Amino acid sequence: MSQLKQSLCLPPFIESGADKEELVRAAAKAGYAAIDLWGRDEDFEETVALANDHGMVVASMVGHWTHEAGLNDPANHDRIERELRESIEIAARCGIAGVITLSGNLRDGVGVEESAEITVAGIKRVLPLADEKGVNLNLELLNSKVDHPGYEADNTAWGVMVCELADHPRCKLLYDIYHMQIMEGDIIRTIEKNIDHIGHFHGAGVPGRRDIGGDQELNYAAVAKAIAATAYEGYLAHEFWPAGDPVAAVGAAFTVCAQQGSEVGS
């Protein structure tokens, strides 16, 4: 059984009113190996340094914008290439293992296979740099039923098709357990079948994108155990908006996934 490392996605917790430094301290005390960030605000590298000072790394950051206008439209490729190149350089400098890529919304008249090929063409523009810098490009799977209407990469099969067409170890999936529970269910079997294509995990409670406790439909202890039983060496990041005290939720989420029985932490 592999070592499962947990990460805390800071932005939802900060949006819930928590102090960033208090969150980082709480995460380190609980046993988290990393934090996740989204955008590159003015104190981005300061936050990276804060995590490092507490014995953690940053596991993931967003590589380009936006969800709606993504890699499946060639009109976006020049812009996205510039944004990804900048993000890859920052990630390499800051020791961040992966940057997030986004498919964009479905386009009228473009079939799923053609759209996957277009997406891969965009990814291939920066794959040599990502490989040189040791940074993964993680295509995020999002639900189109609740949070992101029209988003194309809303199912595992399409994401896997992109990875297989790219045929490169740096092209991976960000498998978001919350989003894929809404779209597909069958979480554990899907993870086990496709683990070689997964570069990062996000998780949150369903329904509501809240805490991962006993009042939601997913058994995160079982999901974490299944991930730990594979050869996966990356992170499971908690990306939810806590219903109660954010700092208490930090430790509670860690404990749920630590119950899977493997050595957890860095």
- Class based on secondary structure composition and strand pairing: alpha/beta
Ranges where pLDDT stays below 50 over 5 or more residues in a row are 261-266
- CATH architectural group: Alpha-Beta Barrel
Q: Could you tell me the strand content as a percent range?
A: 5-15%
- The CATH class, by name, is Alpha Beta
Number of structural units classed as domains: 1
Largest sheet: 8 strands, parallel, barrel
Helix content range: 40-55%
Shape: globular
- Strand adjacency order, main sheet: 1-2-3-4-5-6-7-8
Q: Using only CA atoms, what is the Rg?
A: 17 Å
Total DSSP helices:
11
Give the SSE order as H and E letters.
Answer: EHHEHEHEHHEHEHHEHEH
What is the averaged pLDDT score? 95
CATH fold-level label: TIM Barrel
What is the CATH superfamily? Divalent-metal-dependent TIM barrel enzymes
Distance between the termini: 15 Å
What do you see in this structure?
The protein has 266 residues and is an alpha/beta fold. It has a single domain (5-258), classed as TIM Barrel, CATH 3.20.20.150. It has eleven helices and eight strands. It has helices spanning 10-15, 20-30, 44-53, 77-94, 112-124, 127-133, 156-166, 177-183, 187-194, 220-228, 246-258; strands spanning 5-9, 34-36, 57-62, 98-101, 136-140, 171-176, 198-203, 235-238. An eight-stranded parallel beta barrel has the order 1-2-3-4-5-6-7-8, surrounded by seven helices. Helix 2 runs parallel beside helix 11 and helix 5 packs across helix 7 (156-166). The longest helix has 18 residues, at 77-94. It is globular, with a radius of gyration of 17 Å. 47% of the residues are buried. The model is unreliable at 261-266 (pLDDT under 50).
